[in-house]
Amino acid sequence: MNLQIKSFEEYQDAYKHSVENPEGFWGEIAEKFFWKRKWTNVLNWNFSEPDIKWFEGGKVNITENCLDRHIYNMGDKPAIIWEPNDPNEAHRILTYKQLLDKVETFANVLKNNNISKGDRVCIYLPMVPELVIAVLACARIGAIHSVVFGGFSAQSIADRISDAECKLVVTSDGGFRAGKVLELKSIVDDALMQCKSVERVIVLTRTRTPVSMIKGRDVWWEDEIKKVETQGNPPCPAEEMDAEDPLFILYTSGSTGKPKGVVHTTGGYMVYTGYTFSNVFQYQPGEVYFCTADIGWITGHSYIVYGPLSQGAVSVLFEGTPTYPDAGRLWDIVEKHKVNILYTAPTAIRSLMAFGDEFIADKDLSSIKKLGSVGEPINEEAWHWYHDKVGKGKAPIADTWWQTENGGILISALAGISPTIPGYAMLPLPGVQPCLMDEQGQEIEGNDVSGNLCIKFPWPGMLRTTWGDHERCKQTYFSTYADKYFTGDGCYRNPEGYYKITGRVDDVLNVSGHRIGTAEVENAINMHADVVESAIVGYPHPVKGQGIYAYVIANHHIDAESTRKDILQTISRLIGAIAKPDIIQFVADLPKTRSGKIMRRILRKIAEGETQNLGDTSTLQDPTVVESIIEGAKEFN
Ligand code: PRX
């Protein structure tokens, strides 16, 4: 699949070509994939609706590109190497042939359970091979998957299932994570008390945790497979999908309201994830590639499943966490499976760094050739540790900037080909046209400038809509600046034209690489009976990147310690443990403008400990509020 750039000069040529003739550029790349019928039109778009169509008229199934087309040459080569949570449990290898067989079988299971093209299927599974199988089985028959991260609560699952009106849920009895067992089925049971649309739950056996199976609704994965086998396990032909048919929905947090269901479609997403995987990681046949993300997030969708598999890669899938049973686990996996390419998040690097070098010093990491970073800005200290201790000073680092909405990497070095600077995402990939905008809506030209990062031309992997609410998609991404996709990130372009992402400019937090909406957390806190009002801000955290700081106005009679615990419990129940604040400060009032708007800028400064430099507070309803909040914050500094 010769779509790989081989040198920096080739990158520059490809970039130029992609801007001058985007349709020609992407058309040539799309030719490298298998289409059931070729497109009639490469691109049709406007950003005002927005209405974006790539490869219109093309018919395709992404699983034929990820599986079938590799069988002849590579059927016996590993597609997935699965490493379990417990290092003493045997790992599993699924070859491309085996993975295809299992995907077809489970696709038949879905069909037996009344799922067909266009139906929505919620997947709530631990990081086991069956998660990949379930995802691909949906794509095989054209069902739209909505994977929900295993750390989300029953309420979050219920919200996502209801929004997409999922007909079926795939889950497991439980999941192993570090030393714990997560009771996934029981969480699904709680969620489904609120969901009318779900007709069937398929339950995989993983932990043998006792579960209740509801008659007429719940069936075991293993029994359903047996049923297909007694039917002779017929092949499951890949459904013919329109290039613009939805492939999946993935929910992500924004600055307001509940999470949005970002919709990705089939053809463009396939081309974009395959192209970017091949180029950013400079993947060579046979290399072992390990992305530590969870498939519940976009990184797992694009760079554990679809991108690597469409390129015939060997993709490592890891069930556990980097610190279990100890902080050497990732290095043990690298050593055991001779990993050549490692793609992880700055928060993981920082947490492993904090354990000290003893967990990495004696590990054989000589197989590592290339490194990737994703999810949040990488600080220089973490970059150098990654470079020196993991890459032994030799492996290039691709700091990849992108978002759930983007489908794939937008700004990054190509490993070993482009220059790199610690903390810089560097240069846009071919086909990506970033620009920096000022507050007045004007583009900021030239170098050594900062502004709000926008993209002014479509790329094939971009979102098409937000599920059930196109207007929200338009308002969120395409209304801030006319005819531009607004990322929500701030960015600096240095004198050489290299890009450095400086973080969100909206009310979205990035905690351990997880995207969390402040409004969502505030709404959850406000549900607590003793809470009057709350405000959430982020503050710098040495391991998580950002920590969550909650200012809470509570009823007078509360006992601070027990109310704090109750609030944390409420958030775990309504969102999930990942959204729990690190600090909860009870306050008598919040700093508000005369029109009643909370001045978060001031709360952010206090959370950062920068109380000397609060800026103009004269527009506040009551400036004395600030003094008392500063006084109360001393407890946490
Ligand atoms: O702020 C940026 C940050 O993560 C946000 C997107 O989060 P999510 O949709 O969850 O996707 C994460 C994985 C693709 C962005 O708006 N972000 C992501 N990658 C980087 C980053 N910030 C700085 N550098 C990065 N490499």
TrEMBL record:
EC number: 6.2.1.1
Gene3D superfamilies listed in its UniProt record: 3.30.300.30, N-terminal domain of ligase-like (3.40.50.12780)
UniProt source species: Sphingobacterium deserti
Domain of life: Bacteria
One BP annotation, GO: acetyl-CoA biosynthetic process from acetate
Residues covered by the AMP-binding enzyme C-terminal domain: 520-597
GO MF entry, a single one: acetate-CoA ligase activity
Similarity section: Belongs to the ATP-dependent AMP-binding enzyme family.
A Pfam family reported for this protein in Swiss-Prot or TrEMBL: ACAS_N
The AMP-dependent synthetase/ligase domain, residue ranges: 68-458
Keywords: Acetylation, ATP-binding, Ligase, Nucleotide-binding
Descriptive protein name: Acetate--CoA ligase
Classification via NCBIfam families: Ac_CoA_lig_AcsA (TIGR02188), PRK00174.1 (NF001208)
Domain Acetyl-coenzyme A synthetase N-terminal residue range list: 11-66
Enzyme class name: ligase
